[in-house]
Specification:
The chain is of the alpha/beta class. It has 27 helices and 16 strands. About 55% of the residues lie in helices and about 10% in strands. The strands form 5 sheets. Strands 7-6-5-11-12 form a 5-stranded parallel sheet, sandwiched between helices. Bound molecules: arginine.
Length: about 625
C-alpha cells in the first residue's frame, strides 16, 4: 500500500538513480517539495558548475502555479562573465536531462521555471499527508538548538500577548493581540520551539486602590462571583465618576478661594493613594482584596480564552514586578549613566544616548516620578530582566498595538544602553493596526465576551435561514458560537497586521467572500464527502493515485503540496494572512473541483483515488485552520 513504503524505496521505484543528497534546511521526509529541490539541485549543480549550497536555497516556491512549481532566478547563482541570464538559461535548458520528477524547464525573463510531473508528485505527496495527518506541515527541527547534533534541546520562545487591564474594557487592541499572539505561539510550536505564553496584565497602580474603595461603596459579593469582569468594570466606572466630581468640587472651591484641605486629606484620591500604598507595603487586608479581584478576573478570562483555543502558561502582570528588582535596575541605569535627574524625577534623555533624529524621536521618558512611583516603562524594564531569570529564553515577542511603538522602542533601547546587548537582540515587538468602529449591538466598546456573543447570535440567525440544513446540525448554538469566533478571527487576520480595518459584522459573517464561515463551510463539506463515501482508511490508503488525471485534480495536488512551504514562509513573514491567503486559494481550487471530481457514482477505484485527494485536502485545511487558532467544524 502506498502509505507504508519508505521515501527511499519510493524514490528508487521512481528510478531516481542516486539517493538524495543532503542540504541544510532540506527535509524530504516531511516536505515533498524538498524532494524536488534536492533533485533539481543535483541536476543544476552538474550542468551549471555552481555549488549545490548556492543552488538549493535559490530555488523558490511560487504564489501562482502558472509560473511553475519552483523557480530559479538565474542571477541568484552569481555567475561571472558576459553571458546574460537569458542565454545561460537557454544553455541549461538545452543540457537539462530527462527526469522522472520534473518536466524540461522553461525560461521566463531571468527565471527558470520548473513544473513538476504531477503524477509522481501525487505518489510522493498524498501518502505523506495521509500518514502524517495532524502534523503535516509542521517541522519540529527548526526550533532545535543544534539541528545537526542529537537532541540538544529546543529553543525557547516567549510570546507575550493579550495583556488586558483588570477592571477596564478589553478593547480592540487586546483582541488583536490575543488573536495574533495565539497564532504566533502556534506557528513557533509547529516549528519545534518551546513556547511560553505570557499574559502581562495591567493589574497594579493607584487605580486598584480606587477600585477597592469603589467595591466598598458599590460592590456586591454575589455580582462579583457571577461576573467579575463586568462588575469590576461597573464599579470602576462609578467610582471614577465620583473621583471626577471630587476634582470638580476642588476646582470650584479653589476658584472661590475656599479651603480644600479636607478633600486633600480625606478625599477619594487621597484614600486611593493610601490604599494603594498599603498594597505596596503588603498590607494583608488590602492585598487579599486585590488578589481576589485579580484571581476572579483571571478565572473568567481563562474561560473566554478557551473559546479561542488559547491558554497561557503564565499570568504575569505589572503587579508581579518586584520592587527590589526595580530598585536594582534603577541603580544600574544611574551607574551606567542611562538615567538622570530632572526636576525631581528620574528620566532617560535619549538625545544624549542616541544621535540625531533617532534620539529625538525616542523622547525623554520618565522612569520614576517625583513621589517615587515607578511607571509603566520602569516595570517593563524589570519584568524583562525577571523573565530572563525565570525562563532563560532565546527569543521574546511582545504582541502589542502600534500605538505603543514608542514605548517598546524606548524599552528595548534602555535595555541595550544598560549593557544587555545580547538581550536587546532577542526581543521583538510585533505590532498591529487598529480596529475601527468595533461596537456591539448594544453600544460601543465592551468586553470580548460581548463581541463573541454578538457574532455568535448573528451566525445563529444566518444558519437559521437554511432550515433544512439547520435541522441537521446537532448542537446549533455551539456551532454558531464557533462560526462567530471564526468570523471575527478571519476578518482580523485577512490583511497585513499593520493595516487598520473596519469591524464589519455583516461582511465577516457572510458565506460569500473570503470569510471565516466560508472556510468553515469548505471544511464541513469535505467532512461530509468523507462521511458519504464511507471508505475505510485502508481503502483510501490503497488508492491508485495514477487515476487522478483531470486538470482540476492536478491543480489541487500542486496547491496542497505547497502547504509546508507556506508554513515555513510564515515563520519569516509572521503574518497570519500568509496562511490565510493560502487556505483561501486552496479552498477555491477545491470548490471548483467538486463538479469535475465526483465521488458518488464514480467507479470504485476512481472513488478511492479521489477520496485520497479530498482527504489530503481536508488534512491540509484542518491543519491550517488550527494553526490560525480556529476550530474546524464537521457539520454546519
Ligand atoms: N496592559 C497594556 C495595555 O492595555 C498592554 C501591555 C503590553 N505589554 C507590555 N509588556 N507593555 O495597554
Amino acid at each position: 500500500a502506498a502509505t507504508t513504503t519508505s521515501l527511499a524505496d519510493k524514490l528508487t521505484s521512481l528510478s531516481l538513480k542516486e539517493p538524495l543528497p543532503k542540504y541544510a534546511n532540506c527535509f524530504p521526509e516531511i516536505n515533498t517539495v524538498d524532494v524536488y529541490r534536492a533533485h533539481l539541485t543535483s541536476i543544476l549543480a552538474e550542468i551549471t558548475g555552481v555549488d549545490a549550497s548556492i543552488i538549493y536555497p535559490a530555488l523558490q516556491w511560487t504564489q501562482t502555479l502558472e509560473k511553475g512549481d519552483l523557480v530559479l532566478p538565474v542571477p541568484a547563482l552569481r555567475i561571472k562573465g558576459k553571458k546574460k541570464p537569458g542565454e545561460l538559461a537557454a544553455e541549461w535548458i538545452e543540457k537539462f536531462p530527462e527526469s522522472p520528477l520534473v518536466h524540461k524547464p522553461t525560461c521566463q525573463g531571468t527565471f527558470l521555471q520548473f513544473f513538476f510531473k504531477v503524477d509522481k508528485l501525487a505518489e510522493l505527496l498524498i501518502p505523506s499527508i495521509l500518514t502524517r495527518g495532524k502534523v503535516f506541515g509542521q517541522n519540529q527541527f527548526i526550533g532545535l538548538k543544534d539541528p545537526e547534533g542529537p537532541s540538544k534541546g529546543r529553543k525557547r520562545m516567549i510570546v507575550e500577548f493579550s495583556s488586558p487591564n483588570i477592571a477596564k474594557p478589553f478593547h480592540a487592541g487586546h483582541l488583536r493581540s490575543t488573536i495574533i499572539g495565539g497564532f504566533l505561539s502556534n506557528i513557533y510550536e509547529a516549528a519545534g520551539w518551546d513556547v511560553v505564553r505570557i499574559n502581562y496584565l495591567g493589574d497594579w497602580g493607584k487605580q486598584y486602590g480606587l477600585l477597592a474603595l469603589g467595591f466598598e461603596k458599590y460592590g456586591s459579593e454575589e455580582a462579583l462571583q457571577a461576573d467579575p469582569i463586568n462588575h469590576l468594570f461597573q464599579i470602576y466606572v462609578a467610582i471614577s465618576k465620583d473621583l471626577a466630581a471630587e476634582k470638580d468640587e476642588m476646582k470650584a472651591l479653589k476658584e472661590a478661594g475656599k479651603d480644600i484641605s479636607h478633600i486633600e486629606d480625606e478625599g477619594l484620591d487621597e484614600q486611593a493613594r493610601r490604599y494603594f500604598k498599603a498594597m505596596t507595603e503588603n498590607d494583608a487586608k488590602a492585598i487579599e482584596q486585590w488578589a481576589r479581584f485579580r484571581e476572579l478576573s483571571i478565572k473568567r478570562y481563562k474561560e473566554t480564552y478557551a473559546r479561542l483555543n488559547i491558554h497561557f502558561d503564565d499570568y504575569s502582570g505589572e503587579s508581579q514586578v518586584k520592587q527590589e528588582n526595580m530598585d536594582k535596575a534603577g541603580k544600574k541605569m544611574e551607574e551606567m549613566g542611562v538615567s538622570e535627574e530632572s526636576e525631581g524625577a528620574i528620566i532617560v534623555d535619549f538625545t544624549k544616548h542616541v544621535e540625531g533624529k533617532a534620539g529625538k524621536s525616542l523622547e525623554r521618558p520618565i522612569i520614576k516620578k517625583k513621589d517615587g512611583t515607578a511607571l509603566y516603562l520602569t516595570r517593563d524594564i524589570s519584568e524583562m530582566l525577571q523573565r530572563v531569570e525565570k525562563y532563560n529564553f532565546d527569543h521574546m515577542i511582545y504582541v502589542v498595538a502600534s500605538q505603543q511603538d514608542l514605548h517598546l522602542k524606548q524599552l528595548f533601547k534602555i535595555i541595550e544602553l544598560m549593557g544587555y546587548k545580547d538581550l536587546a537582540k532577542k526581543v521583538q515587538h510585533i505590532n498591529f493596526g487598529m480596529v475601527l468602529g468595533m461596537s456591539t449591538r448594544k453600544g460601543t466598546v465592551k468586553f470580548l465576551d460581548d463581541i463573541l456573543r454578538d457574532v455568535g447570535e448573528k451566525m445563529h440567525e444566518v444558519m437559521q435561514k437554511n432550515q433544512a440544513k439547520y435541522e441537521q446540525v446537532e448542537n446549533p448554538l455551539a456551532t454558531a458560537d464557533i462560526l462567530g469566533i471564526s468570523s471575527v478571527m478571519v476578518q482580523d487576520m485577512s490583511g497585513k497586521r499593520i493595516n487598520n480595518y473596519e469591524f464589519n459584522m455583516d461582511a465577516m459573517t457572510s458565506f460569500e467572500g473570503d470569510t471565516g464561515p466560508y472556510l468553515q463551510y469548505a471544511h464541513a463539506r469535505l467532512c461530509s464527502i468523507t462521511r458519504k463515501a464511507g471508505l475505510s482508511t485502508e481503502e483510501v490508503a490503497s488508492a491508485n493515485l495514477s487515476l487522478l488525471t483531470e486538470s482540476h485534480a492536478l491543480n489541487l495536488i500542486r496547491v496542497i503540496s505547497q502547504y509546508p512551504d507556506v508554513v515555513q514562509n510564515t515563520l519569516k513573514t509572521l503574518e497570519p494572512t500568509t496562511v490565510l491567503t493560502y487556505l483561501f486559494k486552496m479552498t477555491h481550487a477545491l470548490s471548483s473541483s467538486y463538479d469535475h471530481l465526483r465521488i458518488v457514482g464514480s467507479e470504485p477505484e476512481l472513488m478511492k483515488a479521489r477520496m485520497a485527494l479530498y482527504d489530503a485536502a481536508r488534512i491540509v485545511l484542518n491543519n491550517g485552520m488550527r494553526l490560525l487558532g480556529l476550530s474546524p467544524v464537521e457539520r454546519m
